Amino acid sequence: MTATTPHPVSSRYRDPEFTTLPRTNLTVELQLAHRSVRAFLDAPVGDEELTTLVAAAQSASTSSNLQAWSVIAVRDPARRDRLATLAGDQDFIRRAPLFLVWLADLGRAARLAASQRASLDATRYLESTILGFVDASLAAQNAVLAAESLGLGTVFVGAIRDAPDAVAAELHLPDRVFATFGLAVGVPDPAESAGVKPRLPQQVVLHREVYDDSDDSLIGDYDTRLAQYNAEHSRSAGWITPVLKRLADRDSLKGRDRLRDHLRAQGLPSQ
Amino acid sequence: MTATTPHPVSSRYRDPEFTTLPRTNLTVELQLAHRSVRAFLDAPVGDEELTTLVAAAQSASTSSNLQAWSVIAVRDPARRDRLATLAGDQDFIRRAPLFLVWLADLGRAARLAASQRASLDATRYLESTILGFVDASLAAQNAVLAAESLGLGTVFVGAIRDAPDAVAAELHLPDRVFATFGLAVGVPDPAESAGVKPRLPQQVVLHREVYDDSDDSLIGDYDTRLAQYNAEHSRSAGWITPVLKRLADRDSLKGRDRLRDHLRAQGLPSQ
């Protein structure tokens, strides 16, 4: 008998009955091993890596090939410092050499329309705003995996939606362009102990033919597994309590309850 | 001199000055080779593959670990037929053996809150709705790449947002759950000629430090390249004309201008 490395699906679920996949390969195993990295070495991420990340991002699907997104690569330490302050004062944004800000971008099409005196009224509707968020998300997820395939680590920063007006000013965002989320990118510090966070059992998120909430009953087990994982990483709590706290009321949104107002201010009224 | 296969980045951009990547690997090349597949062999996609796709999807990042998404695997031909009719009568939904419907799911948290008599008022705001769309998108993009790594092909179907009320009824969607987009999955028909669609030049979507629209001037070249690609695939038009048409007015949204009303009907008022 030889010692073998456990398949990454076992860390992903921490379910003793789900320790391997019948259909697997190196790309899938890279995906399964994803973790958010918040501690980076003092090492640059070069333009060569950035080119690969953007090429991967652009290879994702985009609704009707509209490509309704852009990305801003922020390296300037002073700008990262200001963005960190705006985004919940998360210090890792100051320490990551590269901070990517993903934009829902209906502005490019709007500038084309203006140059041809064409109407672009569809950008007034929530559908178009959401299309921009979805396009940016598909692109960003490809960039995350490309980064990981190059040995880099990343973490998403939704908190740049806490103060969208200041973020828009900082990044010179034009009409109909909105900063959806940030992504800190760097070389992971091997001394950081962050592990692979276990997720809900597959049965809870995967439904067959129609929505079926009967497997909600497994959430209690998951709460226990996540509490165990968190305890190993010097954190407390399982899943249920933080989820309920995070979604309890307007205050728990930390200003993001005003998202529609901010979108409107950027020319996306999201009707 | 030996014949070599061109790097997939050359098809992705069709830019004679951008034919390789200094930092590349098999995962990146799989991403770059992505194409939407709309013709499938009469071959099943098994539960083993589905398990891998969902494990990959669950490995994507999720805001605050809320996991505010679910997926419904639709295999029943009669149900796929009805969904195809609702989604712009796109026949490939009938022919793909597996149709995945990705859901923004705040309902799971709402059911937990109800069982504990806790408030969940934050789900009333657009921020939470968009969080569900972003979570579903990150998950789906991982599933797409996992599918491609197993030799399967996929295509996104945004048109299930054309008739959200009928889709919600068909899929028994409960309170605070919304169908964001579909994904047809199957074994690609090798007889289909669909190629890798070229994207905008990197300079147009990648900004440095701040947003900069000066590279919009390259869009004309791209329009020509895409027209060339389309001509090779028996289609016409470049990029600018279809984009302007797609976003011209309310009518071009094919009913999706009512997205906010439909979200409200599903318990997501998106204030």
TrEMBL record, chains A, B:
GO molecular function: FMN reductase (NADPH) activity
Keyword set, alphabetical order: Flavoprotein, FMN, NADP, Oxidoreductase
Primary enzyme class: oxidoreductase
EC id: 1.5.1.38
Pfam families: Nitroreductase (PF00881)
Top-level taxon of the source organism: Bacteria
Database matches in InterPro entries: Flavin_OxRdtase_Frp (IPR016446), Nitroreductase (IPR029479), Nitroreductase-like (IPR000415)
Record-given protein name: FMN reductase (NADPH)
Species of origin: Nocardia macrotermitis
Gene: nfrA1
